[in-house]
């Protein structure tokens, strides 16, 4: 494929679904299994020195000594280069099986390989990836990092290597008594060399990152900081200060937060981002807010969350940060089901408040109205731990998701006609895919039985460890929990709700 062809073909449709379809022949021109994310997308856990390309492949270890000589190896690891070589030959790396499974259902089914490769950041690096081939080093255009695992929440599907609050739970009570393996054992994470380096110790990965930063920063198109809770880490604010000193109007920056941190941290964050936005120091800033349900049920899933404070903080950010964006990341899981529609209704209300109508002059000097979207939603489905997966849902639970899907379809984003409020086609399609995943269930009775028993074990332990009450918080699942406890011979005491 020539440079001219690359340049001509990178003008993709702004609609993500259409763009994903348009990019297929571009990928096929290189190889039928080619994926730009393997070259230009990177997630790097500086806490423990692991990385992957997009969220789907398993993470793998980075050599802590090699990166001090060549910090580009934080991303360009030998394992990624081996997988790149496979893709260039039309082979399918095992770690990308999620996409292969979707694509084998038919040409009309779009996988994350298509969506990722069609996103704007990927188009900026087409030729660099081609030139790097399988063995060269390339700067990612989309980079996500977490600097440490400090966090004020202990979300039900998280783990001690990603949350210091989870680590406190396990250090105090030990791992959960799930089968066949005890859940969230710190010893396990240490045995596979994925437990975080303590903050008080030197971290070669963070050192390598800042060594790489002068070469990396000018090429980034999207940079996202996660955690733990990134607003509890000084490196996050170091990045924001660097942006203030070195503006880039072609760079998108994002922070993934629980938006429930102490007011001093939140206000410092909003003040810096507001300044960056006011003086146009970035192309765009986006706040990703993690929340998986509504009210008390959301607080149960993300233990330590103050839901009302989070909602107020999001409103505060949208009010103070000019053109600031927010995307709610809803990790769609079994416990999301009863309040998922209520959450979508709340998001729609925020859109009506903060999605704005603006005016600009056309080529004839006439004022025309256009929309500016500020509030978005994404619903990645939870796959692990399996005892909180949508696959555990029974047919009598499906209606919550189906009703929510109908609500989203009844409130589509129709641009000017809907005053730039509503759900976009790719958001509806992603939610619909999750419902299909839910209805597939587990492929064996053995897997179902193990997930059901672990559901009992985990949430009963969760309640005595964290002084919570599952059946009182989720009365919609009280009968389900009772049925499972009877089925597997556990003593069940119903809670008055």
Write up what this structure looks like:
This protein has 497 residues and is an alpha/beta fold. It is built from 22 helices and 13 strands. The protein has a 9-stranded mixed β-sheet with strand order 3-2-1-4-6-7-8-10-13. The protein has a two-stranded antiparallel ribbon with strand order 5-9.
Keywords:
13 strands, nine-stranded mixed beta sheet, globular, two-stranded antiparallel ribbon, 22 helices, alpha/beta, 497 residues
Largest sheet: 9 strands, mixed
Measured distance between first and last alpha carbons: 65 Å
**What proportion strand?**
5-15%
- Helix count equals 22
Overall pLDDT, averaged? Answer: 92
Indicate the percent of residues in helices: 40-55%
| Order of strands in the sheet with most strands | 3-2-1-4-6-7-8-10-13
Q: Structural class of the secondary structure composition?
A: alpha/beta
Our Rg estimate from Cα atoms comes to 23 Å
The unreliable regions are 1-9
Shape descriptor: globular
Number of E-type strands: 13
Topology:
Elements: H1 3-9, H2 16-28, H3 37-40, E1 41-45, E2 50-52, E3 60-61, H4 66-69, H5 78-88, H6 97-103, H7 112-118, H8 120-124, H9 126-132, E4 142-146, E5 154-155, H10 164-173, H11 186-191, H12 204-216, E6 222-226, H13 234-245, E7 248-257, H14 263-278, E8 282-290, H15 295-301, E9 302-303, H16 307-320, E10 325-329, H17 340-354, E11 356-361, E12 367-372, E13 375-378, H18 398-410, H19 425-440, H20 445-466, H21 470-473, H22 478-487
Helix pairs in contact: 2-7, 13-14, 14-16, 17-18, 18-19
Summarize the structure.
It is built from 22 helices and 13 strands. With 497 residues, the chain is α/β, with parallel strands linked by helices. The strands form 3 sheets. A 9-stranded mixed sheet has the order 3-2-1-4-6-7-8-10-13.
């Amino acid at each position: 494929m020539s440079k001219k062809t690359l340049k001509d073909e990178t003008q993709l449709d702004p609609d993500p679904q259409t763009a994903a379809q348009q990019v297929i022949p571009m990928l096929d021109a290189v190889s039928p299994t080619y994926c730009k994310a393997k070259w230009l997308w990177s997630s790097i856990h500086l806490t423990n020195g692991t990385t992957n390309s997009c969220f789907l492949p398993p993470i793998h270890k980075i050599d802590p000594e090699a990166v001090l000589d060549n910090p580009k190896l934080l991303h360009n690891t030998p394992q990624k280069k081996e997988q790149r070589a496979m893709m260039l030959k039309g082979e399918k790396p095992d770690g990308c099986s999620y996409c292969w499974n979707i694509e084998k259902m038919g040409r009309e089914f779009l996988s994350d390989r298509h969506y990722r490769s069609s996103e704007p950041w990927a188009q900026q690096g087409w030729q660099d990836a081609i030139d790097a081939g399988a063995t060269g080093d390339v700067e990612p255009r989309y980079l996500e990092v977490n600097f440490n695992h400090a966090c004020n929440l202990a979300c039900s599907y998280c783990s001690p290597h990603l949350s210091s609050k989870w680590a406190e739970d396990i250090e105090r009570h030990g791992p959960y008594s799930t089968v066949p393996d005890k859940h969230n054992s710190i010893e396990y994470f240490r045995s596979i060399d994925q437990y975080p380096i303590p903050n008080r110790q030197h971290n070669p990965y963070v050192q390598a990152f800042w060594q790489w930063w002068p070469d990396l920063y000018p090429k980034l198109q999207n940079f996202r900081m996660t955690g733990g809770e990134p607003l509890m880490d000084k490196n996050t604010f170091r990045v924001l200060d660097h942006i203030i000193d070195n503006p880039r109007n072609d760079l998108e920056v994002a922070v993934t937060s629980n938006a429930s941190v102490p007011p001093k941290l939140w206000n410092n964050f909003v003040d810096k981002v507001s300044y960056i936005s006011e003086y146009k120091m970035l192309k765009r800033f986006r706040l990703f807010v993690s929340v998986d349900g509504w009210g008390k049920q959301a607080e149960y899933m993300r233990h330590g969350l103050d839901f009302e404070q989070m909602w107020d903080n999001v409103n505060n950010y949208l009010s103070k940060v000019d053109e600031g964006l927010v995307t709610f990341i809803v990790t769609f899981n079994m416990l999301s089901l009863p309040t998922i529609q209520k959450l979508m209704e709340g998001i729609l209300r925020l859109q009506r408040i903060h999605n704005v109508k603006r005016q600009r002059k056309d080529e004839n000097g006439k004022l025309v109205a256009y929309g500016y979207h500020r509030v978005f939603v994404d619903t990645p489905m939870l796959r692990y731990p399996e005892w909180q997966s949508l696959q555990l849902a029974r047919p009598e639970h499906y209606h919550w998701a189906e009703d929510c899907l109908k609500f989203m379809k009844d409130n589509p984003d129709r641009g000017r006609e809907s005053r730039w409020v509503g759900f976009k086609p790719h958001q509806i399609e992603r939610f619909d895919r999750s419902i299909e995943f839910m209805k597939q269930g587990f492929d064996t009775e053995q897997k179902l039985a193990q997930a059901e028993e672990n559901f009992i074990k985990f949430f009963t332990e969760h309640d005595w460890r964290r002084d919570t009450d599952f059946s009182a918080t989720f009365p919609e699942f009280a009968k389900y929990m009772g049925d499972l406890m009877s089925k597997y011979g556990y003593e069940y005491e119903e809670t008055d709700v």
